[in-house]
Amino acid sequence: MLSIEQARQACAELAAESNSLDDELLTLTELNHRVISEDLFAGVDVPPFNNSAMDGYAICSSHTEKSLFISQRIAAGDRALALEQGTAARIFTGAPVPKGADAVVMQENCEADHDKIEIKKWPKPGENIRCAGEDLRRGDPLLRRGDRVNSAKLASLASCGIHRARVFKRPKVTVFSTGNELVPPGEHLKVDQIFDSNRPMLQAFLSQLEVDVVHSEILDDDRDKTQRALQSAAEKSDIVITAGGVSVGEEDHVKAALEKVGRLDLWKVCMKPGKPLSLGHIGDTLFIGLPGNPVSAYVSMFLFGQQIVRGIAGEKNWQHRSLKIPANFTSNKVRKRPEFMRVQIQDQGLIPYPHQGSGVLSSLVWADALALIPAETPIKHGHLLEVYPL
Ligand code: AMP
Ligand code: MG
C-alpha cells in the first residue's frame, strides 16, 4: 500500500512522463481556463504613461504658492500640454499627467474658485500619480508555458494588448461508471437500483478543467465487456477514468480487465476514504480507476485524478493548496489510516460533518474543505490540521 505522499508523487510522475498535447492559437476571449503553451512577455509598459490616480489638480510640488491658476483641463483620453510654470491643471482619473507636474492634489484638498484654486493640503512629490510601467515593464514575464488562465491573468494579457495566445489542446477523456445497480438520473429506478452520481460528478469536475469528455457510459459488472470498453475508449482518449469495480470482489472487474488490456502501475493508497485507487496505462492512454463509493470517488478525483488530468492538460505549475487550521473538535478515535475528514472552516477552527460515511455525499455538499487526520493520532481542540480547501 502506498502512502498519500507516494501516491501523489506517482501521479505527478505519470503526468510528467506523458507526451505534450498539440497546441492551438486562440483569441483572448477563448483563453479563460485554458493552459498556455508558450512563455508570454509584456510588449509594452503598463500603464504606458504617467497618469492621475484621482480627480484633482496636477501641480509641480516644488512650487510654494498655495493659490494657482488653472491653465488646462485634462480628462482621460485627452492629450496633455506641458504644465505652464506656476499653474495647476484640472485633471481626472486616468488622464495623462502633463510634463512639468509631479503630483496631483485630490480635489477634496483644494478650494476651487472659477479659474483659480487654493491648495489646502500640499502634496508630496509623486502623490496620486500612477507611474508608467509600475504594473509591468516591457519585457516582463507575463505567463509561463503550463500556466492556466483565469480572469485576472486574462485581464493582464489584455492590459498589454495581447489578443491571442497559444494553448494546449484539450485532453480527450472517457468516463465510465461501473455497476449493475446503476441507473442514469432521469430514467426509471427499479427496486434495488440506485442513480449513478459518479459520472455526473466526474463530468462536472472535468468541465472545470476544460477537458473534452469524448465518451461516457455506465458499464455492467462484466469482465469481457469492461475489457472491450477500456480498449476502445483508450483508442480515442488521452485519459480513461472509471469509478467503481476496482476492489478485489467477485463483481469487481476493472482491475482484472485493465491488466488484460494494459498495465497497472499503482493500486491501493493508505487513506480513508478512497483506499482502492488504480493508476495505469492502456497503450499510451493513462488510466485512472477511482473507487465506487461517491465520497471516495470525489476525494480520489480531487487529490489524485485532478493532478494527473491537469498534468496531461499541460499544466505544469499546479499544486494542491493546503493550510494549517486548528481543530475545533476532539476525536479520540485512533485511526489505522490517515483520514480526509469533510469539514467546514469557521472562525473558531474546523468543524467536522457528523456523518463521515464514504457514501454520504451530503458531507461533501456541506463541507468547504478536507482536513487530513493523521493515523494513530487522537485530535484535541487546537490541534493544527492540514486542510485542503475544496
Ligand atoms: P464498488 O467500488 O463498485 O464496489 O462500489 C462501492 C459502492 O459505491 C457500492 O455501494 C456502489 O453501489 C456505490 N457506487 C458505485 N458506483 C456508483 C455510482 N456511479 N454512483 C453511485 N454510487 C455508486
Ligand atoms: Mg460495483
Task: List the SSEs and their pairings.
Blueprint: H1 4-17, E1 23-27, E2 40-41, E3 51-52, E4 56-59, E5 67-74, E6 87-91, E7 103-106, E8 110-113, E9 116-119, E10 129-130, E11 141-143, H2 151-159, E12 164-168, E13 172-178, E14 182-183, E15 194-195, H3 198-208, E16 212-219, H4 223-236, E17 239-243, H5 254-261, E18 263-267, E19 278-282, E20 285-290, H6 294-312, E21 323-326, E22 339-346, E23 349-352, H7 361-366, E24 369-373, E25 384-389
Parallel strand pairs: 5-6, 13-16, 13-17, 14-15, 17-20
Antiparallel strand pairs: 1-12, 2-11, 3-10, 4-6, 4-7, 5-9, 8-9, 18-19, 19-20, 21-25, 22-23, 22-24, 24-25
Helix pairs in contact: 1-6, 3-6, 4-5
The structure holds adenosine monophosphate (AMP) and magnesium ion.
Structural class: alpha+beta
Radius of gyration: 29 Å
Beta content: 25-35%
Largest sheet: 6 strands, mixed
How many helices? The count is 7
Mean pLDDT: 96
Q: What gap, in angstroms, lies between the N and C termini?
A: 26 Å
* Percent in helix: 10-25%
Shape annotation: elongated
The quaternary structure here is single chain
Low-confidence stretches: none
Small molecules (ligands, ions, cofactors) in the structure: adenosine monophosphate, magnesium ion
Number of strands: 25
In spatial order, strands of the major sheet run 7-4-6-5-9-8
Characteristic key phrases:
7 helices, six-stranded mixed β-sheet, 21% helix, alpha+beta, 25 strands, 390 residues
Summed up:
The protein has 7 helices and 25 strands. It is α+β, with helices and mostly antiparallel strands.
Molecular structure report:
The chain is of the alpha+beta class and 390 residues long. It is built from seven helices and 25 strands. The chain has a six-stranded mixed sheet, with no helix packed on it. It has a six-stranded mixed sheet with strand order 16-13-17-20-19-18, sandwiched between helices. Strand 19 and strand 20 form a beta hairpin. The radius of gyration is 29 Å and the shape is elongated. The structure holds adenosine monophosphate and magnesium ion. Adenosine monophosphate (AMP) binds next to strand 13 and helix 3.
